[in-house]
UniProtKB/TrEMBL annotation:
Protein name: ScbR family autoregulator-binding transcription factor
Residue ranges of every copy of the HTH tetR-type domain listed in the record: 6-66
Record-annotated DNA-binding residue ranges: 29-48
Keywords annotated in UniProt: DNA-binding, Transcription, Transcription regulation
Highest taxon, organism lineage: Bacteria
PROSITE patterns: HTH_TETR_2
Pfam families: TetR_C_45, TetR_N
Family matches, as InterPro entries: ArpA-like, CprB_TetR_C, Homeodomain-like_sf, HTH-type_TetR-like_transc_reg, HTH_TetR, Tet_transcr_reg_TetR-rel_C_sf
Length: 205
């Protein structure tokens, strides 16, 4: 029974993510989420107290929905992570919904910067490793750069979403790195970094 409850909760999150991603919070209907999940109202409210609770849970689950790319910690893995996220945002509905709800949250009725802070922590970890490996210029402040990168990424992905449903997002993130590397990495390190906007599996082949 415990395993079934875990599976039901995950199913609700996935179907809610589909609905939130398609139309945003205000257009989402609990009845539609229940229909897609094939559950009763009682089953849904057993796991989530309200539509707002469900939306907030989806928003906070975005980091857990992505497996970071392999490789040693450092600047290259950070670049690979941001490019992987660009492709995930084209297909991963839980991530897409979480990002959309994070952008919409003031309109929804809650304010929580923890999704942004979680990604800043991921980026900070890779930047700290990069600094230890001598991959960053001496003037770079890791904490400030991590927050800046999250802000830049948020803006770029939102612009791409509005412009063409994120079809060009990997290319835009690659552009971001081509310019950012000039300011944060020594020339020889910047020249060694691989910034490939192709899907990871295709790039590996």
């Amino acid at each position: 029974m415990q395993q079934r409850a875990v599976e039901t909760r995950q199913l609700i999150l996935e179907k809610a993510a589909e609905v939130f991603d398609e139309g945003g919070y205000r257009a989402a209907r609990i009845a539609e989420i229940m229909h897609r999940a094939g559950i009763t109202q009682g089953a849904l409210y057993f796991h989530f107290s309200s539509k707002l609770d469900l939306a907030r849970t989806v928003m906070l689950a975005q980091r857990e929905s992505v497996v970071l790319p392999p490789g040693p910690d450092g600047l290259q893995r950070l670049i690979d992570t941001t490019l992987l996220l660009a492709h995930e945002l084209q297909t991963n509905k839980l991530l897409r919904a979480g990002v959309r709800l994070a952008v919409e949250q003031e309109e929804i009725g809650f304010v929580d910067d923890s999704p942004y802070q979680e990604w800043a922590e991921v980026f900070r970890g890779q930047l700290e490793a990069a600094a230890t490996r001598g991959e960053l210029r001496s003037h770079v402040e890791v904490d400030r750069l991590a927050v800046l990168l999250v802000g830049c990424y948020t803006g770029v992905q939102h612009f791409s979403k509005l412009a063409n449903a994120r079809a060009d997002l990997p290319d835009r993130i690659a552009d971001l790195w081509h310019y950012m590397l000039l300011g944060i990495a020594p020339p020889q390190v910047a020249a060694e970094m691989i910034v490939n906007p192709e899907p990871p599996l295709l790039a590996a082949g």
